[in-house]
């Protein structure tokens, strides 16, 4: 009986919100479509696919809808997108995700909405990804890439599930970059963080319901004190605390993330010199920043490698050209891959750019308006309105990228790209909240693919994914299969 009453209450509230927002944009002379959160909830498709379908069906610079209790405006105009991500950042600094203060990982990481807290944390994390830091850290990535290929060669059964194989590499290499390389481990691919990473990122009923409640019933979401990453919180925070404690008196320079955390702890209270805002570098705050590596990088990088290999299997001429580049740089079996070598993989860089165009790691970006403003196109945006940037749809827009379904790395030649604004290519986002780890991700992915394709090639096959796994933000198709074959080199 209680379940029936609860269902009736939920349906009644849903009906109320739908009626409340179903003409919000129509009254402002903007095309309005049905609530996108409900579409996602009762659909088998990912949110990026739903957004693309709406994007393709309607002309104009904007498309109005709603996400649960909030009006939502889908942006198609590049000037508006630039304003939301950068130019008018003060009005759009929030991702618009409701979080609970008891959620020690989610509320202290890239989802945080408190502007001052986010700004100061970002300031302190940015130096982690400078060229000098990444150069010092690269030995970890190179060691993991070599171990990855050895792992694949020694365990041929891994090739039956290529996505899981790649996920092993991205998770293990992030784990080693955060916690350092365990000298007692024979192969860095033997990582204790695999299950944790998958539980945190893989689409699930809990994830879908959490996003739905956050957007549609934010008060209920807070009352229930839902923790997005609650299942892994204790494990990860305790791990970070143990490692930091064991490393307090270690004088050896490891150039991993824990070393950065220890430096921040040693410096004491963090302060924003411009505003005077202060924040203590607690174990929980620093653990959340370490956790950021996993949730922002493990799944997205694995998907990027996965879709890249899928397209290479479908395009043998491109694969051959890429093999030639890799063989020219890694001429001998014993050749060490250095940080400076990564820049030499220019064709691999174009291949990755094209893979992330067709399959962007994050297919939709959303920002919450925190104060009334006006977009460059003249549309007034009220407080608490969400602006959605349909990245996947834009990357497949033939007006921006001619013949968008064709996999063509050469479209990323400098001269061809010079006429396109950077706000129409958004694999890592853009502006003030651009993915802070994008340079690390490129190193990780390029090193892994270069090592793998030096030793393996792909059986030619044609694959055209029709649909993707149900996910609120990303594009995933983990069941795609392609055959890796050892090369005679």
UniProtKB/TrEMBL annotation:
GO terms for cellular component: endoplasmic reticulum membrane. Pfam families: p450 (PF00067). Its cofactor is heme. Its main location: endoplasmic reticulum. It is a peripheral membrane protein. It comes from the Eukaryota. It catalyses: an organic molecule + reduced [NADPH--hemoprotein reductase] + O2 = an alcohol + oxidized [NADPH--hemoprotein reductase] + H2O + H(+). It is an enzyme of class 1 (oxidoreductase). Residues 1-18 form the signal peptide. It is found in: Endoplasmic reticulum membrane; Microsome membrane. GO terms for molecular function: heme binding; iron ion binding; oxidoreductase activity, acting on paired donors, with incorporation or reduction of molecular oxygen, reduced flavin or flavoprotein as one donor, and incorporation of one atom of oxygen. Keywords: Endoplasmic reticulum, Heme, Iron, Membrane, Metal-binding, Microsome, Monooxygenase, Oxidoreductase, Signal. The keyword Flavoprotein does not apply. Heme binds at residue 435. Its EC number is 1.14.14.1. Transmembrane segments: none annotated. Belongs to the cytochrome P450 family. May be involved in the metabolism of insect hormones and in the breakdown of synthetic insecticides. This is unspecific monooxygenase. It comes from Trichoplusia ni. The lineage of its organism: Eukaryota, Metazoa, Ecdysozoa, Arthropoda, Hexapoda.
